[in-house]
Amino acid sequence: MSITAEGFHAQEAVHAHGHAGLGKFIGTYVFSRDHKIIGIQFLFSTLLWFLIGGLLALGVRWQLAWPWSNDMPLVSKMFFAHTGGQISPEFYTMMFTMHATVMIFFVIIPILAGAFGNYLIPLMIGADDMAFPTLNMLSYWFMWPSFLCIIASFFVHGGAAAAGWTSYPTLAALQEASPGGHMGQTLWLLGVTFAGVASMLGSVNYMTTIIQMRAPGMTMFRLPLTIWAMFITAVLQAFALPVLTAAGFMQLLDRSVGTGFFLPDGATANNAPYATGGGQPLLWQHLFWFYSHPAVYIMILPAMGMVSDIIACFARKPIFGYKPMVYSIAGIAGLGFVVWGHHMFISGMNPYLGMTFMVATIMIALPSAIKVFNWLGTLWGGKIQFTTAMLFAVSFVSMFIIGGLSGIFMAATPIDIFIHDTYFIVAHFHYVLFAGTAMGVFGSIYFWFPKMFGRTMNEFWGKVHFLLTFMFLNGVFFPMHILGVVGFPRRLADPYQYETFHHLLGMNRFITYCAIGMVCSQSIFAINFIYSIFFGPVAGRNPWHANSLEWCCPSPPGHGNFDFQPIVYRGPYEYGSPEVQTDYYPQHQPPPEGAAPATERYMDG
Amino acid sequence: MGKFWSFVFFLVPVLGVGLFVVAMNFHSLPLLNHWFPEDVSASGHVIDQLFMTILVLTGVVFVATEVCLAFFLWRYDAKANRDPVRYMHGSHTLEVVWTVLPAATLFFIAIYQMNAWADAKIRQPKDAGVIVEVRGRQFEWRFRYPGPDGKFNTPDDIHWDTDLHVPVDEEVLVHLKSEDVLHSFFLPNMRVKQDAVPGMMIPVWFRPTKIGSWDLVCAELCGWGHYKMRGRITVQSRADFDAWLVEIANKQHATQADATATADAAKPAK
Ligand SMILES: [Cu+2]
Ligand SMILES: [Cu+2]
């Protein structure tokens, strides 16, 4: 079903007859079915939630640096007047629950798949839009009930969910077990379910589009790694998400009508009547992590793909080991389905099962290692251009090395006994998700911004933003490893009551200062981003001299994307090819007359 | 600027290793005591040593890859590098090497630590010196000893809820339960952690090697009061422990007798 030249023009003709006025505006920019508008809608929404999630994290950090302080600037008087200016332990629990919920379900997953997946997939494969534009529009609008549920939950009686983002029963399933356990927890479950529906609609669409709508000549092994990563992510979503949805409904039923899927006989809390039970709290953990471990890869694979494209472009060199890169993405995804138990080593799960999960988990470090080596191989012998996008992409690699290696500690079951639920794990997943994915996302924004808005972002301020973020993030997250080695537990409103941990206040203050610095540095990004949309220097079609198809259409691309029918002659990483004079060789550029068919070169022939 | 940026990335391994080296070697100094808490158990050192083994292995990979990265950034900076780009799609040999070597290392790590795991969670000791039931509830720990008959759920059970008393140099077997939500029984100084799950009884064991008193931490989110679910473990000599057991058993009988008396007194006279 590749688009033909005639089909392309026929579509153009249809869109020439638009509606006028407000109706047209709403159709074009609000309920748009154009993948680019939807992508940008996702981008703006998720960046806004990024700010909210970041502020929630600052609240957590404040409490850990100045426990029970009643003189937080501004905030104390505005929000905590009823508790004498202090963050109450109830609210602290809510803050870390919602920080994780917002960052995972409203920022990382939708910014990767929703924003970049939507924007880039049709452009990079040479299609005029997604396979199912209406479904695509719905995937964005299903986020809104989810947004509203989560916002509303802060204002209902008892406040928002406070059972952690993992929502473990029985704390989450018993209404009486926590203050947010009434309406807040129910809204949380609904919100996550709606976000899941949105992801599901997206992933069906991405798979179909990538399989069916590639331009002529775009074979699977000529796809940019971004697309491979998006494709495999979509497959992961499609297989893992139904399990979370089912589990979410089960917990909803446990809470509302007392089905007791996750409640043992006689479960109770806070002097509430005994539940009938007949269920098992560990069942939820299995179902939850069956989705949420693959979700960890849903949250990093697309960033790995985009970073690969950025690194090849600014190293001016073909990606090293394209096929191993693809196979390792697939390997991570495949193994990713059989490692969920590593979240449950000390949960009371069968310890023999723990051994099995431990072996699978340790082995998943292998494809990650292969990717790192291939990124290094790509840099080796290149001509590296230090653009802002490249700095962020390289920092992704540098930081992912830390996040990947620290994972091995947790995978080793005996060590996990000690560091489970300590700041070691907090350090680990922030190195993967913030220092990894978020830095990859920043790089991708600087890289594809010219395509999205037709203008480039300011490079000087981009680099200032990079340097500050990079320094502060390491200041925040690296010392957390050390806290973890002391055994410093996560999710405690006041860990300093323990003799073992009371001397750690100093290090926590340092972390909080860095966290404040990190959040403030993002204002540089925000200003640069907004200013550049309107006043940035105009970018041409291909400001970075890159190869993949999105760079051959106008910036920003019009409706229907390409103003000619692209035909693909080669892979996306032909930088420095001897066939042409330029140091790049776009996928759609026909080979020179009479040239011998290009062959790939390997070090060992 | 390429030089500057490669230097920034070079700082990652330097500062990263530096921080760990300082934490590891100077933890006896007052302001730098940021390392494992004192180990007072018979098998805790196994976990610490495994941690160190993996720290060294991952440390080597960390330094090698990060230095490589910084070096490439410095060496192949487009502004300074006059060599032509290496037009190259990969290397079959290298791919095989950097697949097989890490695979073997990782597999070694996986097998190497299985024994420690089995000792900690599978091979339950047969010669436990004391058996104690530990129950978590929002937001406190409760303890129960089987009493002279050695069986739980008999009238001579001894209840206690302040701190967990155990004898030194004997295997302690904990029957871990929860009365409401998930909790986690974490003894940092014994390198022991196990979730308490409502509806399950999970065995936990350790052998304390030093007399004293240490933290018992709840390490699984159990609600708003999670932070204050603090406990202590008191390790005593066998003689002190036995004496303590007798003492609280007597106290308990006295209060029970009192309670029965009050209950009798409260009964309406016929
Ligand atoms: Cu996981
Ligand atoms: Cu707790």
Describe this entry's structure for a reader.
The complex is a heterodimer of chains A (605) and B (270). Chain A contains 19 helices and no strands. By secondary structure, chain A is mainly α. Chain A has a domain at 37-283: Cytochrome C Oxidase, Chain A. With 270 residues, chain B is of the alpha+beta class. Chain B folds into two domains: 2-79 and 92-120, no CATH class; 127-263, Cupredoxins -  blue copper proteins (Immunoglobulin-like), CATH 2.60.40.420. Chain B is built from five helices and ten strands, in the order H-H-H-H-E-E-E-E-E-E-E-E-E-E-H. In chain B, a hairpin with a 4-residue loop joins strand 6 and strand 7 (192-196). The relative contact order of chain B is 0.12. Bound molecules: copper (II) ion (CU) (2 copies). Residues 293, 296, 342-343 of chain A line the site of one copper (II) ion (CU).
Key attributes of the depicted protein:
heterodimer, A: 605 residues, mainly alpha, Cytochrome C Oxidase, Chain A, 0% strand, globular, B: 270 residues, alpha+beta, Immunoglobulin-like, 2 domains, 5-stranded mixed beta sheet, elongated, binds copper (II) ion
Let me know the number of strands of chain A: 0
- Quick one: CATH superfamily of the domain at 37-283 in chain A? Cytochrome c oxidase-like, subunit I domain
From the alpha carbons, calculate the radius of gyration of chain A and give it in angstroms.
25 Å
Instruction: Report the biggest beta sheet of chain A as strand number plus sense, adding barrel if it closes.
Output: none
Supply the CATH superfamily name of the largest domain in chain B.
Cupredoxins -  blue copper proteins
